[in-house]
Design a protein that fits this description.
333 residues, alpha/beta, TIM Barrel, 8-stranded parallel β-sheet
Length: 333
């Protein structure tokens, strides 16, 4: 693939990361029929393709594929210079059935799990450790103290918070506590954000902007809706990996979302790109977004997504995309 990804600064960390991150949540994931969505060989081939495009920012989690995602990344990394790559992972979800301490953000689980994650990844450190959810049973001071200890131990470089609700007060409060004690704060977030899921606009993005926190969105293509494969009143395509539940259809197959998709398709025709590339280019051009995270089942899908980095949007095109669907605060007077 004739594409070399550039790098951008990750918030105030000083770390440079690829302008498109590669998400590995499909690695080892079982479909409802019991088949692996991405097996070990396919995972390594996808990582090869990402590396060939000069991609160096890989995102995973301890529960992806029940740990296989981290294992397969670790196997792949073992033949390379680990320091050339930025590796991010996440922790929160249960890792042992029936053990209440093998879940959440308590100190016991965090310390045990970070060692397991590093062993799987065959590395001495994580560049970014995200908390995958907030744990109301663990006080913020206890959490930040424990996370700071992982940084002091050299096992983690930077801290992040993933998949929070639009209200970012928990992140702001945790960072205030960290700053009070001289501990490492959260410097990146990983929320859902795309042209039709706009819930973080307003206070959440303003918080990230004011605190200089990097924003690295997941689901930039809205679970495939923004690829253009869905049509008004049309049948769901055979290659769709979206949920068959009514809640998915209620969330995405709406008239206002299709109106937004119309704008994406208009811009795609203007710039000679696919809908997916335009939707990703909106993130790349967005002043409040650090980099989007893309996933793929095939090398062709991955290469198409990565080519979004070469799509240039005019100010008018960006503004039309940005205005294609109202954010949660746009109607307030």
């Amino acid at each position: 693939m004739d594409l070399d990804l550039d790098t951008v600064s990750m918030g105030r960390t000083g770390l440079e990361v690829s302008e498109i991150a590669f998400g590995t949540w499909r690695f080892g994931r079982e479909t409802p029929a019991g088949n692996l969505e991405t097996d070990r060989n396919a995972a390594h081939e996808l990582l090869d393709a990402y590396e060939a495009a000069d991609g160096r920012f890989i995102d995973t989690a301890d529960v992806y594929g029940s740990g296989d995602s981290e294992r397969w990344i670790g196997e792949w990394l073992s033949g390379r210079n680990r320091d050339e790559f930025v590796i991010a992972s996440k922790v929160y979800w249960p890792t042992r059935q029936g053990d209440p301490n093998a879940a959440g953000l308590n100190r016991k689980h965090l310390r045990n799990q970070i060692d397991t994650m590093l062993e799987r990844l065959q590395t001495d450190y994580l560049d970014v450790l995200y908390i995958h959810r907030w744990d109301d049973s663990t006080p913020a001071r206890e959490l930040m103290r424990t996370l700071n200890g992982l940084v002091d131990d050299g096992k983690v470089h930077y801290l992040g918070a993933s998949t929070f609700r639009p209200n970012g007060w928990r992140i702001a409060r945790a960072n205030e506590i960290a700053n009070q004690y001289g501990w490492e704060p959260f410097t990146v977030t990983q929320p859902r954000y795309n042209l039709v899921n706009r819930e973080i606009e307003g206070e959440y993005l303003e918080m990230c902007r004011n605190l200089d926190i990097g924003v690295i969105p997941w689901s930039p293509l809205a679970q495939g809706f923004l690829t253009g494969k869905y049509e008004r009143d049309g049948d769901r395509p055979e290659d769709s990996t979206a949920s068959d539940s009514d809640s998915w259809a209620d969330r995405y197959l709406t008239e206002e979302n299709f109106d937004a998709l119309d704008v994406v398709q208009d811009v795609a025709r203007e710039v000679g790109a696919s809908e997916a590339q335009v939707a990703l280019a909106w993130h790349i051009h967005h002043p409040d977004v650090t980099v989007p995270i893309v996933g793929a089942r095939t090398i062709d899908q991955l290469e198409e997504n990565l080519k979004a980095a070469s799509v240039s949007l005019s100010d008018d095109q960006f503004e039309r995309l940005d205005a294609s669907k109202a954010g949660p605060y746009d109607d307030l007077s």
